[in-house]
Design goal:
Layout (H helix, E strand, L loop, with lengths): L1 H19 L18 E2 L7 E8 L2 E2 L3 E4 L5 E7 L6 E3 L4 E3 L5 E6 L3 E7 L11 E6 L1
Parallel strand pairs: 2-5, 4-10
Antiparallel strand pairs: 1-8, 2-3, 5-8, 6-7, 6-9, 9-10
Length: 133
């Protein structure tokens, strides 16, 4: 009886591991290289780097400026507390695990930067701006 139970548990574990490993990165986009968020894929070397530093309940700057059509590397640094950043208008989310990404914005505008990890009582006020000129 114990052997049957061990065998069944092993099969279930094997199926679970197999199902979770289906990350296929060979899928191509069908929209000519431009995402639905208005950000072109950044395959070029970044011409600019923006570092966004987070401490408890604030970012190091009220606004960050980048240029339209220019590849820029966005870097997130968590200096105090537990934080992440999200820029919904650019479909960008960074954390301590994935702390940088190169983007090329193709539309001007102001994009809100918010903390993506609940960090305490001041979380809702943890907002900044990314301005694409």
């Amino acid at each position: 009886m114990k052997k049957v139970l061990v065998y069944m548990m092993s099969c279930v574990l094997l199926i679970a591991i197999t199902a979770c490993g289906g990350n296929d990165s060979s899928t191509k986009s069908s929209n000519n290289g431009v995402s639905d968020t208005g950000v072109a894929p950044a395959e070029e070397v970044p011409a600019q780097e923006v570092i966004i530093k987070a401490t408890n309940y604030s970012f190091d700057q009220q606004e960050y400026r980048i240029s339209k059509g220019v590849p820029v590397k966005i870097v997130f640094e968590n200096e105090e507390g537990n934080h992440g950043i999200m820029i919904p208008g650019l479909d960008l989310q960074l954390s301590t695990k994935k702390s940088s990404k190169v983007i090329t914005p193709d539309e001007t505008g102001e994009y809100e930067i918010i903390c993506s990890v609940f960090c305490g009582t001041g979380h809702s006020g943890m907002i900044s701006k990314l301005i694409v000129e």
